[in-house]
Design a protein that fits this description.
GO terms for molecular function: hydrolase activity. With 204 residues, the protein is of the alpha/beta class. It contains 9 helices and 6 strands. Strand 4 (146-150), helix 8 (153-161) and strand 5 form a beta-alpha-beta unit.
Length: 204
């Protein structure tokens, strides 16, 4: 019986799963190289460097420009409106906490989620097992009671190792992170498909 749903933000709720390259770098490339953005992101998402260090060299009036790229994926807002009335929803994302909060605020997401988990605050990240074990312990749920939705196979593989039911959001033309020999339990192209999947699982 499904008791809760854990959902990734970028590429699942939003249309863009590569906000660092297609968002932050796109609007800060006059000040940072793509390599710098990605290197700083890897450190900032687990708290190894601060928000100020992440944006070092970028004028303060340019640091929010990436939000122009943050938009709902088609169908995701409608799905959240329906799903949150039936199941506890939790956001589970690898991100820099301040940037993550800005995205959530723009999309007005907090009202849909019982709790929000972000790697910076947990001091660990997907796909490390500690991430999944931490959120399961916090919510007092068992893996088999939870659906985990992500657009990245490596993150879903980590979730599967902790016995969560995995659902991959398919993004055509996605990058090398999904070129691995792993298949999620289910694949979707729209969050609205989750309700049918849950009904199917709950009747088994």
């Amino acid at each position: 019986m499904i008791k809760a749903i854990f959902i990734d933000l970028e590429g699942v709720i939003t249309h863009n799963g590569r906000i660092m390259t297609d968002g932050v770098y796109k609007h800060a490339k006059n000040y940072l190289t793509k390599k710098q953005v990605l290197k700083r992101y890897k450190k900032a998402r687990t708290g190894k460097i601060s928000y100020e260090e992440f944006f070092k060299g970028v004028p303060k009036n340019k640091r929010n420009d990436f939000l122009k790229e943050v938009q709902f994926r088609k169908g995701s807002k409608e799905a959240l409106k329906s799903l949150h009335k039936k199941y506890p929803l939790y956001l589970a994302s690898n991100h820099v906490d301040v940037l993550f909060e800005k995205e959530i605020k723009k999309l007005k997401l907090k009202k849909y989620f019982k709790k929000i988990f972000v790697s910076k605050n947990l001091k660990t990240r997907k796909p490390f097992l500690k991430f999944y074990k931490t959120i399961l312990k916090d919510t007092k749920l068992k893996g088999k009671e939870v659906i985990f939705v992500d657009d990245t196979r490596r993150n879903l593989r980590g979730a599967k190792k902790c016995n969560l039911i995995t659902v991959q959001m398919i993004n055509p033309g996605f990058d090398a992170r999904n070129k691995m020999d792993f298949r999620a339990d289910f694949e979707i192209k729209d969050l609205k498909e989750l309700e049918k999947i849950i009904k199917k699982i709950n009747t088994i």
